[in-house]
Amino acid sequence: MTKTPFVTKDRLVSICEHFPTPFHLYDEAGIRRNMEAVRDAFAWNPGFREYFAVKANPNPALISILGEYGCGLDCSSATELILAEALGMRGDKVMLSANDVPAEDFRLAAELDAIVNFDDISHIPFYRHVAGPIPKTVSCRFNPGGLFQLANGIMDNPGDSKYGMTEEQLPEAYRMLSEAGAETFGLHAFLASNTVTDEYYPALARILFALAVRLERETGVHIGFINLSGGVGIPYRPDKRANDIRAIGEGVRRAFEEILVPAGMGDVAIFTEMGRFMMGPYGCLVTRAIHEKRTYKDYIGVDANACDLIRPAMYGAYHHITVMGQANGPDKSGSPAVRTYDVTGNLCENNDKFARDRALPEVEIGDLLVIHDTGAHGYSMGYNYNGRLRSAEVLLREDGGCRLIRRAETPSDYFATLDVQAGVHARLERIAHGEAAQGVR
Ligand SMILES: *Cc1c(COP(=O)(O)O)cnc(C)c1O
């Protein structure tokens, strides 16, 4: 089983002549085709809107592509709200789905007239205290507790998750919001992450639709939208089947017809907050083999590290790797796997491995490697441990051209937050710029 990169070896070699590795490369055509499929899958619901989860990939160039299709943004912090505003989004195009929310996030949401998705009932008086009047359109996040199961097994453990309100709290929260002036209500839940099954959204929809009917009857509020949030997964492993968004949309439609329409709630809008599904497969981390080490195992050291992609280190997540080869060498992308390697980054941290015991073609120093599916929760989870600097982001455009959509960090970025003596600062800057000029990342 294999996965094919969205870029050919020859094209990648030419891209690398312009942009030094490592960098995240994104596939505009893939993002657009997938966005169109999402739009079509939910076209049966006139109010449908995808609020792209900014935390999955906060690059403005990529968000703008989704914006062309009418997407809103799901923000998790004040900084992401600032990004939304900078992209011209406000009002019902912006959702704040945060938890443990700082006052400034609520204040900024109020300024942008954003939809606030309350994570907890106690946040309602907190919001009024720090941000002012309750917005006209609000939402509440539901957590059913217990284990969340589908036919193929346990998907996740909501009972152990910090998010959302209990079913008992919801009517009380709606009443408080209603008395405070809210007019349109939403219901939201996120019960399982990276679900590679077409059953997740329909099963979640059934739970939320039935709950919405009960809540509307019990409290009399008008439920305007139901937000299925994120959680639609992607096949990181080559033997997994990709989700079929049309089947997912159709499954949600059936639940809608069976539960909401008979209850007189056929005007409810369906919202989603997908991050991974919108971007994950349309990004990859391009890196180069710089060392081969043979000790108790065989290691390939690459020029990227966990600061560029933390998922393998943090979750033991699988990311497929294709060895592409080098400029004048053979195209290795279809070659049989003949060796077993750990593919490592350079952090002083033994979990900085993109792959463990991975069967790959023979890797030579200088070979380009593509680490797949980094378009979501890739760059955005980056950090600066060991003084390592985050990589660039490059967009492979539909017309085949390339555009740098975020430069790589330089040492100056790393030192920018320091308040040190002027002399030290000048020295750091001088060294940093000297290094940057020589192409040191
Ligand atoms: C992370 C998150 C999402 C996106 O999740 P994906 O798994 O990337 O689809 C959506 N909504 C909320 C509230 C989130 O925290």
Task: Note down, in words, how this protein is organized.
This protein is α/β, with parallel strands linked by helices and 441 residues long. The protein has 3 domains: 27-280, Alpha-Beta Barrel (TIM Barrel); 283-409, Lyase, Ornithine Decarboxylase, Chain A, domain 1, CATH 2.40.37.10; 416-441. It is 31% helix and 22% strand. Strand 12 (283-294) and strand 13 form a beta hairpin. Helix 2 packs parallel to helix 9 (245-260) and helix 4 (78-86) runs parallel beside helix 5 (103-112). The protein is globular and about 70 Å long. The model has no long low-confidence stretch (mean pLDDT 95). Residues 53, 55-56, 74, 76, 97, 190, 193, 229-232, 273-277, 376 line the site of pyridoxal-5'-phosphate.
Number of domains: 3
Note the gap between the termini.
35 Å
Percent helix range:
25-40%
For this structure, what is the CATH homologous superfamily of the largest domain? Alanine racemase
Shape: globular
How much strand? Answer: 15-25%
Low-confidence region ranges: none
The value of Rg in angstroms is 23 Å
Q: Total number of β-strand segments?
A: 19
- Main beta-sheet annotation: 9 strands, mixed
Structural class from helices and strands? alpha/beta
Topology, pairings included?
Blueprint: H1 9-18, E1 23-27, H2 28-41, E2 49-53, H3 60-67, E3 72-75, H4 78-86, E4 94-96, H5 103-112, E5 115-118, H6 123-131, E6 137-141, E7 148-150, E8 153-156, H7 169-179, E9 184-188, H8 200-219, E10 222-227, H9 245-260, E11 269-272, H10 276-279, E12 283-294, E13 298-302, H11 311-315, E14 321-325, E15 339-344, E16 353-360, E17 368-371, E18 392-396, E19 402-406, H12 411-415, H13 422-437
Parallel strand pairs: 1-18, 2-3, 2-11, 3-4, 4-5, 5-6, 6-9, 9-10, 10-11, 13-15
Antiparallel strand pairs: 1-12, 7-8, 12-13, 12-17, 14-17, 15-16, 18-19
This protein binds pyridoxal-5'-phosphate (PLP).
